[in-house]
Amino acid sequence: MTDPTTVFDTNFDFSALSLQLTTGSEKVQAQTIDKLATLSTAGEELLMKFLLQRQSNPPTWIDGKAYQALYRADSPETKNFLQTNFPTGIVQLNSEQGMDYTSLQKLLAEQDFQAADRLTLQKLCELAGSTAMQRKWLYFTDVENFTSTDLQTVNQLWLIHSEGKFGFSVQREIWLAVGKNWEKLWSKIGWKSGNNWTRYPDEFTWNLNAPRGHLPLSNQLRGVRVIASLLSHPAWER
User: Fold this and answer.
1) Neighbours of 7 (CB within 10 A)
2) 139: burial class by Cβ within 10 Å (0-12, 13-18, 19+)?
3) Where would I find the H helices in 86-197?
4) pLDDT in tens, 172-220
5) Cys-Cys with 184: which of 12, 41, 153, 178 at CB 3.0–4.6 Å?
6) Coil, strand, or helix at residue 26?
7) pLDDT by residue (tens digit) across 151-176?
8) HSE of 24 in the Cβ direction (CA atoms, 13 Å)?
9) CA–CA distance, 114 with 121 (Å, rounded to integer)
10) Percent of the chain residues past pLDDT 90, beyond the cut
11) SS3 track for 81-101
12) Whole-angstrom Cα distance, residue 107 to residue 5?
């Protein structure tokens, strides 16, 4: 005997879902994407149509969430769609320093945030030059040499692929909101609890359950000067 609940759950009104996806609040859009991700081909087709309609505009985290749903689907149709329309990912990988951020976008699309965090530091060291690459960490003076374009690209990758939760711009927003008080910032973003620093890597939260602004780590184990330079960079004044 067929379970009537199952019948109800599979008879979705795709017109209503499409309307929610295109005109709903961000919360409604996010919930609709999660629903469509469970509906196989029909849901994937609606998500593909949605991304094509929005392709001419700068991506938001909603686009990132839709992209990730298709990326995870891993069907021949979604693979072909993404390769044709978003060959390097949902975020345009602009660089003035000849950097390739494709691998970082891939890790973030997969929500492998721990690996993406390690790669972010590696990319920042590459931006800083050969000396930073050899030491594998940054001096605060290295940050001054980053182009705004590259820093914004790295930030956008984190922002778009984390439902707007992670990124340097998020950390800066929180930092400004607490009056540039570092102790308050550490507590807000989960880098410190009371007098105890969060220990790397096991005590950090490598998923979207983390506090807002928790990632990326910005070389945080080496003190405040690097993150102070990052959050004060001219990139955020644009």
Assistant:
1) 9
2) middle
3) 102-109, 113-128, 130-135, 140-143, 148-160, 168-177, 182-188
4) 999 999 999 999 999 999 999 999 999 999 999 999 999 999 999 976 6
5) 178
6) helix
7) 999 999 999 999 999 999 999 999 99
8) 16
9) 11
10) 87
11) HHHHHCCCCCCCCCCCCCCCC
12) 37
pLDDT (tens digit per residue) in 86-113: 999 999 999 999 999 999 999 999 999 9
Q: How far is CA 36 from the centre of its chain?
A: 21
Residue with tokens 């800066």: 172
Q: What is the pLDDT of residue 14?
A: 86
**Residue 5: how many other CB atoms lie within 10 Å:** 8
Question: Which domains does the chain show, CATH number per domain?
Answer: 4-85 (1.25.40.620), 102-237 (1.10.10.1770)
Whose structure tokens read 């909101």? 177
Residue 152 and residue 238 in contact, taking contact as beta carbons nearer than 8 Å: yes
d(CA 215, CA 181): 18
Segment holding 208, helix H or strand E: none
> Structure pTM?
0.92
Tokens representing residue 148 in the block: 């705004």
